[in-house]
Automatic annotation (TrEMBL), chains A, B:
Mode of membrane association: Multi-pass membrane protein
Name the UniProt record assigns to this protein: Magnesium transporter MgtE
Organism per entry: Macrococcoides goetzii
UniProt keyword list: Cell membrane, Magnesium, Membrane, Metal-binding, Transmembrane, Transmembrane helix, Transport
A UniProt-annotated Pfam family: CBS
SUPFAM superfamilies attached to this UniProt entry: CBS-domain pair (SSF54631), MgtE membrane domain-like (SSF161093), MgtE N-terminal domain-like (SSF158791)
Amino acid sequence: MAEEEVVLEEEMYNKEALDELLLSGDIDQFREEFLELHTYDQGEYFTESSDEYRDKIYHYLSPKEVAEFMETTEMEDDEYDHIFEEMDARYASSMFEEMSLDNAVDILKMLPKTKIASLLLLMDKETAGEIKALLHYEEDTAGGLMTTEFISVSSLSTVREAMIQLKEQAPQAETIYYIFVLNEKKQLVGVISLRDLIVAENDEYIEDIMNERVISVNVADDQEDVANIMKDYDFLAIPVVDYQNHLLGIITIDDILDVIDEEASEDYSKLAGVSDIDSTDDSMFATARKRLPWLMALTVMGMITASILGQFEDTLSKVALLAAFIPLIGGMAGNSGTQSLAVVVRGISTGEIDEQSKFKLALREAGSGFITGLSCSVMLFIIICVLYKTPVLGLIVCFSLTIAMTVATLAGAMVPLVMHRLKIDPAVASGPFISTTNDIISMLIYFGLATTFMSYLT
Amino acid sequence: MAEEEVVLEEEMYNKEALDELLLSGDIDQFREEFLELHTYDQGEYFTESSDEYRDKIYHYLSPKEVAEFMETTEMEDDEYDHIFEEMDARYASSMFEEMSLDNAVDILKMLPKTKIASLLLLMDKETAGEIKALLHYEEDTAGGLMTTEFISVSSLSTVREAMIQLKEQAPQAETIYYIFVLNEKKQLVGVISLRDLIVAENDEYIEDIMNERVISVNVADDQEDVANIMKDYDFLAIPVVDYQNHLLGIITIDDILDVIDEEASEDYSKLAGVSDIDSTDDSMFATARKRLPWLMALTVMGMITASILGQFEDTLSKVALLAAFIPLIGGMAGNSGTQSLAVVVRGISTGEIDEQSKFKLALREAGSGFITGLSCSVMLFIIICVLYKTPVLGLIVCFSLTIAMTVATLAGAMVPLVMHRLKIDPAVASGPFISTTNDIISMLIYFGLATTFMSYLT
């Protein structure tokens, strides 16, 4: 174990050695060491280097070599800004020309509009045109994910002809493992895997061996739907078509991995009420600044709860022990509400929840809220009777708890369902929001009941 | 849009038509329709069918045909139990023989031990042996994910020889897109992609064109680590080796997609305090039963908060308005604690947090808790002064809020970090647990302060 662990946890390259080669100006040695690394590690080294070192890197490597690691390296928006301000514009535009189109577009989208325009001007016309076309698609759609560098053959060609075309197109193609089959109108009519092509006889016609049941996505489809399809069908790439079934591009599995990760992080962030969960290297102040708007809004909501409770000052001053159960009732409503919120939000993301089952699901959540609320209440009633010997208080607390948990689970399920229905992104229905709303509801129930049955308490 | 949407949201097959063909006994027509479907859709049809229909499916299809969709279909453990009780054991064992080894093992692992043993007895010795070997690996490790059906060539062969071997091994291989290169001791020394092989000259030696910097994982590595590596490096498959670098198997991207999904769901479930988030089709009672243990534990914890508050009955009965701010202070401590818990848990999962940055991270969280706490408190103090004209109460509430939020963020970050350090799964550090713990801490701070400064309040 030990040996392998070390390899995984430590860096796969020697930063100091590379730094030294850069400084000493030993171009050949630096190139040899650096280019032997996997592009991911090259990117890691690059992002960890200072401007001064990066400037040397541009001198030591060709735009093509920089492009290779740049397209697999993930950085923050402002880091890209900074890098492309430093980098010579001509060097940068040749670098973009060397990238996969989809990756070039992803990076360009993070730069200021004027910068994009000036870089496009310096590129060769064909690439600039293709990039411009891709820049139009919205980021979270199939169009925003796809690349136009796919391999396609005519349905009327033979296996031999297809193999020749494949070898020609391979160097530019994003994947060579699926070959898409087009009719004379350039419409997608089939797909054939490289595997099938390799085991087929040379004289067979593509038409006869292709898979006609090709599953495609529309260019306007949401990236989350695309990810779910690719996951279900275990595709390595999926074709993207327009409304007339013309093949526009393909989306490959590596981009989908990022989407799945991104969407999971998004759901997770919402539940926690954090806007940007994956930035563990922000400073204390940056972190505080990001979380503050949310927390201030929640403070104001908390003030609403406080005002409501303030109305019950009379009740509270008569039976002070009532206050002792405020955190319990509010907390349990919050907990069960968050549980049902989480199940529903996740169900919507993974596409498990469809139109028909929505009503049933809300009902199930409310039902399970009632059952768990009742069970917890029975247990709590016994504890309160034993500890405080106040069965009337116990009844009020437990009755409130049951109702609060039922309402909270129903609210937890309904809010994202209704938002999804109204095509609103359920971002507002985050965990803290639901918890605080449930605080308000549960306090109204609790003190409403307590005030009504006041005479039995005192 | 409309047309494509329909295809995506509706089923890709006609269940009624297939049902009818099954019932009418039209074997040829059924086979034609069914086998034209993608295996994912075949599996969907199969899982939605009743026992009676499934029995017919076994008669109409060969074990190989059933194997093809069975290995890509995900079902619950008890569904597998049920299916393999119904299915003829000989049919079942031939079916497992036809599957990819890793998928066969995944399904077999869900069956009772005696059933596995009896099925293995019916299989051919070679397959049974390979399956037995794979059954030994723990589920969440690289060994548990890998398949032994990979393509390997000797480093001394030529491209031509390699292509011949590839064609031979292709039908059984899980992926043909990476060919692993072994030395005479069967140790992994390189990798070459099919793409590189196709563009290489026939007479070149594999040794000369292979990539020697092959990145592998150890058979005992955690599946989450494997997933992070594959995501970072954009691999379609990664080799799995033992401690002497012998190639044992490969893990393909489709299995990793499931792991990423599974791990994200796991983190998400923990944050929400739900054990099994992806089961939206459970009944009301099943849902309640799953959530009840958690909720009961939290009720007991809530009872601890209530007892602590009970100790402050005197303070409460003197200044009833103090109770009004209980939900606010407890809730905000819960919210900010959950935020920092979420960031840290996610950071651990994605491997972004390493040993060195842990202390810095805890410090950052506490600092950002203090800054946000102070900011919210200043705002809250103004509101309280305006609404209630009680600056002393305002000071106590706001002072408590600042401390509570600082402690809560620190606790939210420390709990998972310490657990990770102690190699305990941070499952106990779920969102509701942290919220309830923070409730207790914040109430102690709030009422401790209020009691101390009682004289200024009344």
